Structures are given as C-alpha cells and as structure tokens.
C-alpha cells in the first residue's frame, strides 16, 4: 500500500473556476467570490485519490500541487543525457559572449 497523497493549494494562482470543488468537494471549498480554499491539511487517502487527482489535472491555472519526496507529482528528477553542452564563454576583443559582433 502506498503513502497517502499530499497536496497544497496556491491561492495566489487560483482564478475562481471552481472545478476543484466540483470534483473533490471534501477537499476544496469556495469562498463568496468563488476562490478555492483547501479543507484540512492536504493529506488525501488512497480512497479519494482519483477525485483529487482529477481536480488537480483539471485546474486551468495549476493552483493545486501534489507534494512528494521527489518534488511535484512525486516524480524523480530526470537527468537527461541529451542536454545541450555548456557554451564556450570566452570572448575575443570586442566580440560579445553570444558571438554577436557590433
């Protein structure tokens, strides 16, 4: 059995769409202007995970964030092997670092 899901709500991002309260009314309430507030401490048991995940995924402004050991959504950071190499930052005379010449 996995650990309970943990979420937080960034109220500064909320635009009052109310989709979260529609999908997971036990975890989100709406104030008089339609802005969301998190009910409880953000701990979501496995039985309610689907409804809360639907609220998270349907939030148009991404104000709901899943917390986890490895960052949002509990995913481990991806270390890409195809990352672009660091640019050579040396410059000659009056040539700018971006290799743009006046």
In short:
This protein has a domain of about 60 residues: Alpha-Beta Plaits, CATH 3.30.70.20. The chain is about 15% helix and about 15% strand.
Structure description:
It is built from two helices and five strands; from the N terminus they run βαβββαβ. With 102 residues, it is an alpha+beta fold. The chain has a domain of 63 residues: Alpha-Beta Plaits (2-Layer Sandwich), CATH 3.30.70. The strands form two sheets. Strands 4-1-5 form a three-stranded antiparallel sheet, covered by helices on one side. The chain has a two-stranded antiparallel ribbon with strand order 2-3. The model has no long low-confidence stretch (mean pLDDT 81).
Task: List the SSEs and their pairings.
Elements: E1 5-9, H1 19-23, E2 28-30, E3 36-38, E4 43-44, H2 49-58, E5 64-67
